[in-house]
Amino acid sequence: MTLGCSLGVACLAAVLTIPTILAAQDDRSAARNPEQAIEVTRALSAADTTYFRPSQVDAFGSEPLRRVFIARGTPGPAPVPPGVERLPAPGEVLVSPRLRRILAQQPGLAGILPGRVTGTIGPQGLTGPEELFAYIGSRRDQLPEPLLLDHFGSNHPSSTVVEESTLDILRFTLACVVLLPLAVFLSVCAQLSAESRARRLAALRLLGMSVKDTLRVNTGETVSAAVLGALLGVGGYLVVNEIMARIGLPGFHWYSADGRPEATTLTVCLILCPALAWFVGQRIARAAALTPLSVRRTAERKPPRMYGTLLLLPGLGVIGGYCALSLLGKDPSGGSANTLNRPGSYGDSIPCKD
After folding, report:
1. pTM, 2 dp
2. Separation of alpha carbons 128 and 131, rounded Å
3. In whole angstroms, how far apart are CA 165 and each of 160, 258, 331?
4. Strand order across the beta sheet in which 34-36 lies
5. What is the pLDDT of residues 146-172, one digit of tens each?
């Protein structure tokens, strides 16, 4: 019961955290989005007038490189995007950590960022640790059709990690294809655990223990095992999240803080999962407490043979090979290898919007 619950809770926490990771990246993208001033007269009368050019997306290999050109006016207070202490002056450039590493390794690429790199953008201003993003300081006369900057931050991000229509499909898939089997898996674990204790509970009942006390014994054992398994599952997921956040997946990286479970996820894992185990086990325990003779007289079932587990080896081999190739940087999602790794699949990987 403990091992099964820990495995189920770890998978459940991972599934429930996927939308949270995507939402966190979209929120940071929206928070750094520059907004044009609507009240032009009020903005022009301010001590500082800052102009900008909307985010320009260029192709850097197979990845998007986003650049925002900023033209500061007279010295004074100016809106600052998240992850940046001050706006770059003309000739200065603020870049993401990965873009700074690329420029250090390939100095010839400095032409795409006119200016001198003077700072690094913090995690609050990036969607992920591997994003290529830069703020470039310029003069107003260097910007074609400059827009007057009012503030940073909007209700909707300029670019989303996953399109809204695809995100709805993802939610439906997680709910029907993943959460439902997990609920069945946890129910089966609870039922097997209760079956293993049924004869012992019936013996306690025959020795004179009341029905209420017998059910209390079952509740204590079931809830204790389920809570311990839930804690182990959440702890295991936190460890895996810290490791995978540093390694990443092909085409997708995230900060480890984005993958940490929220209060709602912890509530589902630490409260609802033990409650489900108690509900499933209570039915079998009640039958053992009310009719102990029928439980004790029933012959014990023979344990299942180990040969059946051999059927799991082909599937585990395919999954292990797919993960190994992904970690080595050889994405097996396309080409002829895809027919072996994902037979019967209805489509390719989830498309991302640049």
Report:
1. 0.72
2. 6
3. 11, 22, 25
4. 34-36, 147-152, 51-60, 63-71, 132-137, 92-95, 116-120
5. 888 888 888 777 767 777 667 777 777
